[in-house]
Specification:
Elements (H helix, E strand, L loop, with lengths): L10 E5 L20 E5 L3 H7 L2 H6 L1 H10 L11 H14 L4 E7 L6 E7 H6 L13 E3 L5 E4 L4 H19 L1 H5 L3 H24 L2 E5 L7 E2 L2 H9 L3 H15 L6 E5 L6 E5 L5 H4 L1
Antiparallel strand pairs: 1-2, 3-4, 5-6, 6-7, 7-8, 9-10
Helix pairs in contact: 6-8
Length: about 280
């Protein structure tokens, strides 16, 4: 008799915040007409993947674990950030982890504290978008074109996470900076700033699904290179308007602002949680 008959695994169903309206069947297969997927518990192999520093840094660890634990997802890289966060928390539930832990310092007295939230309660608060909601995420620009926005993908998040980790590590390396001439230090700081700006632009490009032209046929442009070239030439006022319009999309899914109270001085404040952070997930 095969040992596979003796595998035991719990599973959890989770609704995807995006409603699946930006996916094709090639990327994600839903169980029902609802944007519902099933996830199973982590295996020993998944645990090893999550303990690999390189895979955590470049995002492949998270994408591999999502595809392993959620058979409905065929291509994790195209998942929206909110959907990836929901699936990661559901994987924790299936793996019998009931609490989400948040280590933060009290802004009033400076006391470090461990705060916990019930993961099931967080997941139950998800309200998926519908196809009608997509119209809310259109923005007209000064030239007359209309941008159809979409949530940033897991690939974009992983790129941003990796870039920020590398650049902030370099900026914080005082020993290296102190060994350089002042002009070299300024050059390095300028380069870091330029790369961070480029990273923000790349993340913005990832949030554009198409551009609708103001012609008689309302032609829609989907070509990524053409869109990127167009956006690079936008006036700063349009860029600011796009970033402002993207803010609601960034807040999709599990509520990210948690109400906390200091265990020492009882000071209360709102803390933004990062459900994607690969280091915290591991």
């Amino acid at each position: 008799m095969s040992l596979s008959n003796y595998h035991t695994s719990t599973s959890e169903d989770v609704l995807l915040p995006s409603g699946g309206i930006w996916y094709t069947d090639v990327d994600v297969e839903f169980k029902t007409i609802e944007p519902l997927v099933s996830v199973r518990a982590l295996t020993a192999r998944d645990e090893l993947t999550l303990s690999n520093p390189t895979k955590l840094l470049n995002g492949t660890g998270v994408s591999e674990v999502i595809e392993s634990c959620c058979p409905n997802v065929k291509n994790a890289w195209v998942l929206s950030a909110a959907d990836a966060e929901a699936i990661l928390l559901a994987i924790r539930l299936a793996s019998r982890q009931k609490d989400y832990n948040l280590n933060v310092q009290c802004p009033e007295c400076g006391q470090d504290g461990l705060h916990t939230r019930d993961i099931q309660n967080l997941v139950d608060r998800i309200l998926p978008l519908t196809i009608e909601d997509k119209e809310k995420y259109k923005i007209p620009l000064s030239s007359g074109v209309v941008l159809q926005l979409k949530p940033n993908t897991l690939k974009s998040l992983a790129y941003g996470f990796k870039k920020k980790m590398a650049l902030t590590s370099l900026a914080a390396n005082e020993e290296v900076l102190n060994s350089l001439p002042p002009e070299e230090v300024m050059k390095n700081i300028k380069n870091i700033g330029n790369e961070l700006c480029q990273m923000e632009l790349e993340i913005m490009f990832d949030s554009i699904e198409n551009i609708e032209l103001p012609d008689e046929r309302l032609t829609k442009v989907y070509d990524a290179k053409e869109i990127k070239s167009f956006l690079m030439q936008l006036p700063s006022s349009d860029t600011k308007a796009i970033n402002k319009a993207l803010e609601p999309l960034a807040e999709l899914g599990i509520p990210k602002v948690l109400e906390l109270a200091c265990h020492k001085c009882s000071y209360e404040w709102d803390q933004k949680a990062n459900f994607y952070n690969p280091q915290a997930f591991s």
